[in-house]
């Protein structure tokens, strides 16, 4: 199956580099380029691409607002947003995850890692390494300004004990295989627990599960890694 990609960055040279790399692979097709968020949203609505490589800082409509529009449009439910940033500690990265982005990468990422990342989010997985996830959320949930509206912690009451445990492990950045090892179950069972938690909490993907878990207090910044 061909993965259809839209490139959204205000620098034409960067878009050209990404296009050359992506189109060197048989399972990818770049279906459009955008120089700002508005162009990206319009392109997605016309092409129904699978993945958008989204820069955050663009003129006019930025990548953050574009992400909100894409992930908030039910007709674009299958589109995944992969944020590209020069600074991994950009506070807008967390806001993009809250808005529904499926993950983020530094623009200096190795070519093979970028290609793998596109395949990962296209498959419906979140791209969040344990270290990056915990560092981002620890920093920005401790900011003095209150965060945007978040799910009521009572919403976790809809989860079974097993699903709550799974949610905590997802928030720590563990993969399904690692969760399975920790819980002494098969990877398929672990995936089932993750999917059920996503459905019950109305999460778009694992990235949003991470945000919900931290903001509900299930996992606290500074908690030790479970493995």
Structure description:
It is a single chain. The chain has two domains: 125 residues, Response regulator (Rossmann fold, 3-Layer(aba) Sandwich); 100 residues, Rossmann fold, CATH 3.40.50. The protein is globular. Helix 7 packs across helix 10, helix 8 crosses helix 9 and helix 9 crosses helix 10. With 227 residues, the chain is of the alpha/beta class. It contains ten helices and five strands; from the N terminus they run βαβαβαβαβαααααα. Strand 1, helix 1 and strand 2 form a beta-alpha-beta unit. About 4% of the residues have low confidence. The longest helix has 15 residues. A five-stranded parallel beta sheet has the order 2-1-3-4-5, sandwiched between helices.
What's the SSE blueprint?
Layout: E1 3-8, H1 12-22, E2 28-34, H2 37-47, E3 51-55, H3 63-71, E4 80-85, H4 91-99, E5 103-106, H5 111-122, H6 130-141, H7 161-171, H8 176-183, H9 187-201, H10 206-215
Parallel strand pairs: 1-2, 1-3, 3-4, 4-5
Helix pairs in contact: 2-3, 3-4, 7-9, 7-10, 8-9, 9-10
Task: Compute the number of structural domains.
Answer: 2
Task: Tell me what portion of residues adopts beta-strand conformation.
Answer: 5-15%
- For this structure, the CATH topology of the largest domain is Rossmann fold
Mean pLDDT, to the nearest integer, reads 83
Helix fraction by DSSP (H/I, runs of at least 4): 40-55%
Helix- and strand-based class? alpha/beta
The major beta sheet can be summarized as: 5 strands, parallel
Could you give the order of the helices and strands?
A: EHEHEHEHEHHHHHH
């Amino acid at each position: 199956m061909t993965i259809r990609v839209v490139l959204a960055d205000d620098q034409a040279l960067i878009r050209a580099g990404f296009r050359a790399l992506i189109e060197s692979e048989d399972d990818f097709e770049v279906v459009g380029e955008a120089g700002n968020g508005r162009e990206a949203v319009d392109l997605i609505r016309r092409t129904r691409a699978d993945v958008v490589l989204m820069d955050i800082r663009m003129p006019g409509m930025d990548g953050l607002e574009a992400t909100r529009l894409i992930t908030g449009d039910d007709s674009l439910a299958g589109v995944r947003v992969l944020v590209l940033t020069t600074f991994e500690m950009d506070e807008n990265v967390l806001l993009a995850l809250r808005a529904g982005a499926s993950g983020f990468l530094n623009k200096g990422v190795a070519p093979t890692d970028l290609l793998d990342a596109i395949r990962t989010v296209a498959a419906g997985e979140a791209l969040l390494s344990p270290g990056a996830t915990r560092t981002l959320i620890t920093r920005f949930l401790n900011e003095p300004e209150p965060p945007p509206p978040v799910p009521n912690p009572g919403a976790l009451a809809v989860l079974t004990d097993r699903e709550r445990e799974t949610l905590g492990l997802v928030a720590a950045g563990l993969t399904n295989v690692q969760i399975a090892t920790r819980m002494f179950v098969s990877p398929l069972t672990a995936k089932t627990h993750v999917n059920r938690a996503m459905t019950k909490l109305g999460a778009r993907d694992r990235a949003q599960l991470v945000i919900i878990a931290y903001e509900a207090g299930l996992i606290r910044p500074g908690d030790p890694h479970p493995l």
